[in-house]
Each structure stands twice: as C-alpha cells, then as structure tokens.
Write a structure and sequence with these properties.
The chain is 38% helix and 14% strand. By secondary structure, it is an alpha/beta fold. Strand 2, helix 2 and strand 3 form a beta-alpha-beta unit. The longest helix has 20 residues. The chain is globular.
C-alpha cells in the first residue's frame, strides 16, 4: 500500500503552519512534509510531530532569497559560504525532527561552470548529511514555474547521481514537473526508480488534487506500486476548494 504525506506548505492552509500538523493527523495522515520551516523553532516543530504521532518525510534546505529570485544557492559561486551555512542549518532541523531526507535546490544558473559548482556543493552536502544518516535529494524543476533553474532535466539529474556516485544522493521524482518537462511519466518512473528517494504528486497543469488533471494519476500510482516503491509520496498540491473537501481522491487509490 502506498504511503502519502501531506505537504503542509501547500495543504491545510486554512490553519497557521504549526496548527497544520494537527489538521493533517485529524484527516488521517501519518506522514507530513513541508518546504521551508525556518520561521519556526525546530523544537516547536518536533513537539507538534510527537504530539500528533506524525513522521516527517522531507523538507527543503534554505533556498536563499526567494523573493529576489534565488531558488537555492548550490550552483552560485559567490554564495558558497552561505550555501554551506544553509546545509548546517538544514541538518539542525533534520536532527531535531527526525527527518532522513533533505531536498537541496540547485539554484538559478547555466553552463559548465555552474554545473561543476553544483556538483561540488552536492559532494559537500552529501558528506555533511551522511554523518547523520540523512539523504540529499535533487529535483528537476520545469522552467515555466522556475525560470533559469539549473536542474531542469531528469536526464541531467540521472547523470549527476551517476557521476557523483554518492550512496546518500537520490532523485526526488515530482510527477508534475516530469510531465511538463518530458511527459512519458510511467517510463520515467520505470527507468529512474532505482535512484528515486522520494516522489511528489499533483494534477497537471493546474497543480490541484491528483486525478483532476490531464494525467491518469490512478494509472501512475498503480505503476509506482507495481514497481515496488516503498517510500513516501508527497501531496504537493493546492487544494481546489478546501483541503479536507478535496481528499476524496485518496480513497480512490485505496489510501487509508
């Protein structure tokens, strides 16, 4: 049976962030994820997880100046000191909350130099995270939603994982981004499942509840199950008309 995580940066926004943990548990989730927790003390988040018997699947390392256009610091030569500090901060949050996966955003950039800097940054992050039993995840993002993003191709992500050969470097396979970048979602899952450490789902193109868009999400989820995936699938979508009201799709896929 597939395990789904409520993404608390996208779902249950009817509540303040710390109150979303209770709302997710009340809705039947046993696992959560979120993007950037850094406005909150890690101890406060850990307390909410424990109070509501929730596991934390994943969160993102600090992204830099999102408002200013940064989407991660890893490929930016002038921001490497800040990048290393961001990894240290993310690891503090991971240790406090029991998370075993951190998504590390690549940043905006292009060309061989940016790619080389990115690979060096991933090496550093993998070394730092391995000491705590934590995986580093990389996720290709489509350039419609993330203009200029360095890691905008699943084939490039596959090559990076192969080139670096780090046991704790994994792919974050977002079905929404895969469909926009390449299409061919189920074949992509089949090919990349051996290096996939986390999956996320939403409808395409509106990024609402699964089963409400152009993809046959039930078939996609069945494929994931048939491939023997035992990880977590993050629900990274914007509810179309209320979080709880839109959870009917989970019953259609047999989720508890």
């Amino acid at each position: 049976m597939l395990t789904f995580a409520a993404n608390l940066s996208w779902m249950f926004k009817e509540h303040t962030f710390l109150d979303r943990f209770a709302a997710a548990a009340d809705a039947g989730f046993s696992t959560v994820e979120y993007l950037f927790p850094y406005d909150h003390d890690p101890g406060d988040i850990a307390a909410r997880l424990a109070r509501h018997n929730l596991k934390l699947a994943l969160f993102n390392a600090p992204p830099g100046d999102l408002v200013g256009g940064e989407r991660g610091l890893a490929c930016n030569a002038e921001r490497q000191q800040d990048f290393r500090a961001s990894v240290s901060i993310a690891l503090i949050y991971a240790q406090a909350t029991g998370a075993t996966r951190i998504h590390l955003m690549a940043g905006v950039g292009s060309g061989k130099q940016a790619l080389a800097i990115y690979k060096d940054a991933l090496d550093f992050a993998c070394d730092a995270a391995a000491a705590h039993g934590i995986d580093i995840l990389i996720e290709p993002l489509n350039t419609r939603d993330a203009p200029g993003y360095l890691l905008n191709d699943f084939n490039l992500a596959e090559r990076i994982v192969a080139d670096l050969g780090r046991p704790n470097l994994k792919l974050q396979f977002d079905i929404y981004h895969r469909q926009i970048i390449h299409g061919d979602v189920t074949r992509g899952l089949e090919a990349l499942m051996p290096i996939t450490g986390h999956i996320q789902i939403s409808s395409v193109p509106a990024r609402n509840e699964p089963t409400s868009g152009e993809l046959d999400d039930l078939h996609v989820l069945h494929t994931i199950e048939q491939l023997g995936y035992v990880g977590v699938i993050g629900c990274e979508y914007t509810p179309a008309a209320g979080t709880v009201e839109g959870l009917g799709w989970m019953k259609r896929v047999g989720a508890p």
